[in-house]
Amino acid sequence: EVQLVESGGGLVQPGGSLRLACSASGFTFSTYEMNWVRQAPGKGLEWLSYISSSGNTIYYADSVKGRFTISRDNAKNSLILQMNSLRAEDTALYYCVRDLFGYTYGFDYWGQGALVTVSS
Amino acid sequence: QTVVTQEPSLTVSPGGTVTLTCAFSNGAVTSGYHPNWFQQKPGQAPRALFYSASSRHPWTPARFSASLLGGKAALTLSGVQPEDEADYFCLLYYGGNQRVFGGGTKLTVL
After folding, report:
1. pLDDT given at position B13
2. Which of A7, A8, A69, A105 measures 20 to 30 Å from A90, CA to CA?
3. How much is the mean pLDDT over chain B?
4. Which chain B residue has its CA at the smallest distance from A112's CA?
5. Which letter, b or e, does each residue of A67-99 get, where b requires 16 or more Cβ atoms within 10 Å of its Cβ?
6. Each residue's pLDDT tens digit, A106-117
7. What is the CA radius of gyration of chain A?
8. Cα(A42)–Cα(A46) distance, rounded to whole angstroms?
9. Number of other residues whose CB lies within 10 A of the CB of residue A112
10. Sign of the CA dihedral running A20, A56, A54, B89
11. Measured between beta carbons, which residues in chain B are less than 8 angstroms from residue A111?
12. By the 8 A CB rule, do B56 and B49 touch?
């Protein structure tokens, strides 16, 4: 069974940093591309970042480029999102999302999310 | 600014049929934008329904279908069930390295 479990969320002050992790199981993590998606309270979904299976290709949404860094540790089946210079508008539930396998464009499995609250 | 537009809300009667659409500010939605559709119920993570415009996931109920219609991506629910009440989001790929979600449609079954 595919499982994605996010951790590392919490309360942080504006300007602070937070590191989210996503632990993957039930599939060969090293062969799948991955994404981070967030959802502000009561709002829609926002795609944030993509990383290829090897980690060599990375994309970001403009809203987080230069502040957030995606990475992965295939040996530990782990996806990471390092968030710096956090703002109140970064308050959201952050989801780890798996890409479809191969050259198919789409997402399939989602984690349950990690809540990040940016407030003083 | 790149914007993906969905109907904010729709209401359908049980057993009825409803079509949700997904429009792109850059022009007509084509298969090259690889439309995806997701369902989200309150308090739950989104669940994938379709990818590549009309390809369903193994768990997607047969009463759901997806297509390209009139320059938009479309999600049609036929024989709507009470449990289909949810938020529905589309996702488009563009620019070679970007993905963008629509604002979502809140579907009420009444």
Report:
1. 98
2. A105
3. 97
4. B45
5. ebbbebebeebbbbbebeebeeebbbbbbbbbb
6. 999 999 999 999
7. 14
8. 12
9. 14
10. positive
11. 45
12. yes
